[in-house]
Amino acid sequence: MRDFDNRPGNYRTTTGAVSVRRRPAPGPRPRAGHPAFSHGRDARVPEITASRTFDAMARTSAGIVLYRRRGGVLEVLLVHPGGPFFGKKDLGNWGIPKGEVDPGDGHYLETARREFAEEVGHPVPAGPLAELGSIKQRSGKIVYAWAVEGDIDTSTMQSNMIEFPWPPFSGRSRSFPEIDKWVYFDMAEARRHMKETQIPLLDRLEAVLAAETEEAPAPDGSTTDAGPGR
Prior knowledge:
This protein has 230 residues and is of the alpha+beta class. It has helices at residues 108-120, 187-193, 199-215, and strands spanning 11-15, 18-22, 36-38, 60-70, 73-81, 98-100, 129-136, 142-149, 161-165, 173-177, 179-186.
């Protein structure tokens, strides 16, 4: 689902012949997390109190950081938003596959899986998920993310379509692919292309993978973690 951070209002998403109008959905602010492994654990949206108004709620998204290793180089999949607003924008405009948590969903992880499938055209690869916690974008939107290792061929990736009024004030609507580019970037290039507010997710991914390496068993059955006295 597209995150129109700077353009409030309705828009339409279409998948095949089915068309559904959606509104940017408010959501509760999740507690900031720390990198920790999660093997499919649900992340439920905390209950919203009746005293909170629509405008006071922070919108919430959930997404997936897909990474792979090629020749010893760590790479992450970033996607570029389609449509007329982003066509000529490159550096600082890419991001992870993600979308807003619908009020009735109640699960960040299920939202992340659904949005990945919509924007990449493939299900999230099987394997352990590393919980990367949340970040806050400039619009105030909270993005909650998980990382998983996988190597999906970008030539097979495809996105759902979105429909909204275009050109402005013309009374007409056009359909555009929600995502128009899929690229695996090494970490340096990913930081150049990614939205600045999402870069901490890369830092946390590197920290999680470094911790995993330290805890990996050595050939003699021991681990490389020297313990508290290190």
